[in-house]
Write a structure and sequence with these properties.
The protein is α/β, with parallel strands linked by helices. The protein is built from 13 helices and 19 strands.
Length: 367
């Protein structure tokens, strides 16, 4: 039989989370952000659950091509824009919208002759200092774009550096409003964190919202209680089974490097999941995991294909905890739920990383 590990993608959760984003958007249009292969969930897998969005936003031209092949005829936005002048021909063929954040991208558009073929968002740097025109350069860049024969509508975009902190985007919002004041064009400011924090007031900030991580049931702040508090449901579950059991005396070590030593005689299971599957290698002993529906902890260092699990709480709860017992690494399965953000927090990272790191060797089923 095959190795007993599977990921499950829950389409009902994706549909629910998109509806939650729409409620928060309160009439504004919604880009469903599906970059990074839909945050590791699989673009083709999630498409049917997210196709009621007003548009899709991503990074890669190949992913845009996939959406068109799947039958999507609506707007698609390239969040980082074009990476070379040759990309513009594919944008025209696929009818893509794209972000413009650098003078080089304007120069490429200036060399195109097809009239009004490109709908673009000019990006303003409001403090993230990744991509975007500086505030003192923005109006001139926007006006140049608006005058190009190949460019149709020119909107306005920014990305908040502190949207995951209460009130943290106030300065960026003020800078944006001051910079674009009086210029026509649709606006797009809010990612998942900003959309959820501002709620119905988010519509005052823009015409297009850009929910990403919230669509997949993850917390945009990285704080694990938030996803549930906002009514989001996990869209990915990683499940495996116990493949071996050790009855160990007090003082025995578990795993590489002797990082865990038993405090007492204890029963340790070996779960068939490791960093080659996308489980975080840096997850320490004590990271939560669920066996037979009972919350317990991993023990010892995560290896490539396996991790140790404390089975004593499972036995104490009256469950078997034997070889073949089901293991939930994150997500939901069989009535149990373990938020991906809680696992990520224990490992010192974010749920985003765990979702995106799901390895190709893990079989995926749509649930």
């Amino acid at each position: 039989m095959p190795r007993p590990i599977h990921a499950f993608i829950h389409l009902d959760a994706l549909t629910h989370n998109l509806a939650r984003a729409r409620r928060a958007a309160s009439g504004a249009k919604v880009w469903a952000v599906v970059k990074a292969n839909a945050y590791g969930h699989g673009l083709a897998r999630v498409f049917s659950a997210l196709r009621s969005a007003d548009g899709f936003a991503l990074l890669d031209l190949a992913e845009a091509e996939t959406l068109r092949t799947l039958g999507w005829g609506g707007p698609i936005l390239l969040l980082e824009g074009c990476f070379g002048a040759d990309d513009l021909a594919r944008c025209e063929r696929l009818n893509l919208w794209h972000t413009v954040h650098d003078a080089a991208q304007i120069n490429w558009l200036a060399a195109r002759s097809k009239p009004r073929a490109h709908r673009v968002f000019a990006k303003l740097n409001t403090g993230m200092n990744r991509l975007g025109f500086a505030p003192e350069q923005y109006r001139a860049a926007w006006q140049r774009l608006a005058q190009l024969p190949a460019v149709g509508d020119v909107g306005h975009m920014t990305h908040f550096a502190h949207a995951d902190v209460e009130g943290g985007d106030a300065r960026a919002r003020a800078l944006f409003e001051q910079t674009v004041d009086g210029l026509p064009g649709e606006r797009s400011l809010c990612n998942s964190a900003a959309l959820l924090r501002h709620g119905e007031g988010a519509t005052a900030l823009g015409d297009w919202m850009r929910p990403g991580i919230m669509l997949y049931g993850g917390s945009p702040t990285g704080l694990q209680p938030d996803a549930r508090a906002w009514g989001l449901r996990p869209a990915m579950s990683l499940c495996t089974r116990i493949i071996g059991v050790q009855q160990l005396p007090a003082g025995a070590v578990v795993g590489y490097g002797e990082t865990f030593r038993t405090e007492r005689a204890m029963r340790v299971g070996v779960a068939a999941v490791g960093y080659a599957d996308g489980y975080p290698r840096h997850a320490p002993s004590g990271t939560p995991i669920v066996v037979d529906g009972v919350r317990t902890r991993i023990v010892g260092r995560v290896s490539m294909d396996m991790v140790g699990v404390d089975l004593d709480p499972v036995r104490a709860a009256g469950r078997a905890g034997d070889v073949g017992s089901p293991v939930l690494c994150w997500g939901r399965h069989g009535g149990a739920e373990l938020p991906v953000d809680e696992v990520a927090e224990a490992a010192g990272t974010l749920g985003y990383e765990l979702m995106c790191a799901l390895a190709p060797r893990v079989p995926v089923q749509v649930a």
